[in-house]
From TrEMBL:
It comes from the Eukaryota. Keywords: ATP-binding, Kinase, Nucleotide-binding, Serine/threonine-protein kinase, Transferase. Its EC number is 2.7.11.1. The lineage of its organism: Eukaryota, Viridiplantae, Streptophyta, Embryophyta, Tracheophyta. This is non-specific serine/threonine protein kinase. Residues 21-81 form the AGC-kinase C-terminal domain. One of its GO terms (molecular function) is protein serine/threonine kinase activity. Residues 50-62 have a biased composition (Basic and acidic residues). It catalyses: L-seryl-[protein] + ATP = O-phospho-L-seryl-[protein] + ADP + H(+); L-threonyl-[protein] + ATP = O-phospho-L-threonyl-[protein] + ADP + H(+). It comes from Brassica carinata. Residues 50-81 are annotated as: Disordered. InterPro entries: AGC-kinase_C.
Amino acid sequence: AAETIAYERGATEIKQHPFFEGVNWALIRSATPPHVPEPVDLTCFASKDKETMAGGGDEGKKSNNHPSSHHDPDYIDFEYF
């Protein structure tokens, strides 16, 4: 059988971990997070090819700059989505 990460007392044991010391779990849902991103905040992600983003590119074709087009053995079985 495969090993699983589990705690005998479930979430209670996790909440008592020293990392969470000082967290008031009873009020956690009413706490304000330090950063609330905009619903369409794309600044956290790497940008794609400008042509693809503008809708002008054919997403079915691979770019010549795409790593898999260089026949690198490290990318033989790697699929890009």
